[in-house]
Amino acid sequence: MLFIGHWRISSGNRNAVIERFAKTGGQPPVGVKLLGRWHDVANGTGISISEADDASAMARWVLEWSDLMDMEVHPALNDEQLGVVLGGLQRK
Questions:
Q1: Closest CA to 3 of 86, 61, 68
Q2: Residue 89, SS3 per DSSP
């Protein structure tokens, strides 16, 4: 399953986030494959696309960072998956 992650770093936590990221590379835990990550440095925000079979693995990753930044993670569907859902709605 794909997940879209969003984060916002408060200016007060900026240096702590930089330090942790420098030490860990921000790599996900076992069970999560990071597909891409994009940073808006000026605003302290960013997004990521990840893949995991178990939402618990995503929860672990969020918990590793949520002490320093606000995070949201949501399941995501690609066009093919959404097409199946929409097709099912049209039959009702």
A1: 61
A2: helix
Contact 5, 48 (CB under 8 A): yes
∠ at Cα 52 (63, 42), nearest 5°? 55
* Tally of CB atoms within 10 A around 28: 20
Which domains are present in the chain? 2-90 (3.30.70)
Using DSSP, state whether 92 is helix, strand or coil. coil
The two three-digit tokens of residue 17, written as one number:
């986030």
State the virtual CA torsion across 82, 35, 24, 21 in degrees, nearest 10.
Answer: -80
pLDDT tens digits, one per residue of 35-49? 999 999 999 999 999
pTM comes to 0.86
